[in-house]
Specification:
- The chain is mainly alpha-helical.
- It has a domain of 59 residues.
- It is 69% helix and 0% strand.
- It is elongated, with a radius of gyration of 23 Å.
- The mean pLDDT is 85.
């Protein structure tokens, strides 16, 4: 895989093709992977960052096309956060702490 520096010097068609590959791979990971919502959002942010390096002058178009795509995929396929899957209930609080001192 060429570096971002090499890609920035490449033609626009090459940069767009690589960006499409980044986006497709990220979308597949969200759609078919086991990513929770936070991990899926982080992945979308990472891809957007890469897009900003490849096509800095076309980010408005990127956001229009891919922003809604990622949002839909995350809403539809991302797993709930772990605490939403298995809620952990805090232990019941009773008294003021250890009762060892009061038992003597």
């Amino acid at each position: 895989m060429p570096s971002i520096s090499d890609l920035r010097r490449a033609g626009e068609e090459k940069r767009l093709a690589v960006l499409r590959d980044f986006v497709d791979h990220a979308c597949d990971r969200i759609r078919y992977g086991e990513l929770d919502e936070a991990a899926a959002r982080s992945l979308a942010v990472d891809v957007r960052f890469q897009a900003g390096l490849l096509i800095p002058d076309r980010m408005e178009t990127y956001d229009l096309i891919y922003g809604s795509r990622f949002a839909r995929l995350i809403e539809q396929f991302a797993l709930p956060a772990p605490e939403e899957q298995f809620p952990i209930r805090p232990a019941a609080r009773g008294g003021t702490g250890s009762s060892a001192a009061g038992e003597a």
